[in-house]
Amino acid sequence: MEKDLEKYYLAFHGAIDGIVFIDCSSGLIKDCNPAFEKLVGRPLEELKKTNIWQLRPVAERSLAKKMFEEMASGGARELAELNIERPDGTIVPIELRVKRISQNDDTFLVSIARDISEKKLIREALIESEKTYRAIFETAGVAMAIDDENTFIKLANSRFAKLTGFEIEELEGKKSWRQFVAPKNRAEIYGSSHERKANPEKIAPMCYEFELIDRYKNKRAILLDCTSIPGRKMTVASLLDITDFKASEEEARKARNIAETYRISEKVKAELLSVVSHELRTPLTSIKGLTDSLLRKDVNWDDNTKKDFLESIRSETGKLSRLIDDLLDTTKLERNLLKLKRRKGTILQVIEAIKIDMECLTEKHQVIYDLQDGQSPLFIDKMRIGQVILNIVGNSVKYSPPSSKIKI
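== histidine kinase ==
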């Protein structure tokens, strides 16, 4: 028995936390260990003359007395945080556990008190640090969110809420970021997220583009930058809305294409003008030469020669007419004014309509017609089809030697 008492005595006096016995009827301190004396800054002799609530700061004593009376009659208090005041005025925050016990005819409150000054400083520092980081997180110039290992959003700032169309309270702990990712991007982003959380040391921060779909099914182009939180299966993601930039980029691309088309068009136009100038000059020169010859007064041309001259003039005039028609058609095409006048007709009808022009073009060549299906009904612009045939035949004449066969 004495050995057991000795053990309890050693435990009482050697305890790190302060232990104090308080008389339930008077509130006076009956006994305490050295740790409690050190905690409150008073010796046991002085404490035995002190009511427990007198250890509290003056402003808190009335409430402390009421609290003591409740505990003296009601039993235990698991845990409470309160302040005590040392004789030098130092305020010490403590954590207090209280239990009501009875021995013989006496009733005591046994209290265990622990100095939590350092703990409180650490907690306050953590709270302040959290406020600072939350302020940085909230005032960042981009949308930000932190997810957990199941892809649910743990934290989101107001920009992220605005981007997705939800309130922060609707997002945190309730929504997975996967629902905001377009199906075409979902597998890639989820795969990268899973790898990053499984091997945070090996996977570098990722940056890529994806399509975000908000609450109202609106689509936005997003530049995503994300990285893992060390020691946690969580990811910090920042999202930059680049929809307007992409639209501007697309407009710039279209403008470049238009500029390139215009440049090519101008080049073709210049080349066409050069070719047309040459092509126009040739028949004009022939017509002028033949006309001047016919008008010569010092030469008496016979009828056959005059006829040949006139046939040549007619041929060159036909060429000139076709060139002018081509120029007019080119202008209409540029202005999108060229309209097709489709009617029922046949290829034979087209050939018949251009027969005279064809003869002028092919007077030095042999034309072979193979038009077995020439009577088949078609819905065509006969004049334009005729122009196409004349152009093709004209090229055949131009690039083949005289007397060559041209098959139509």
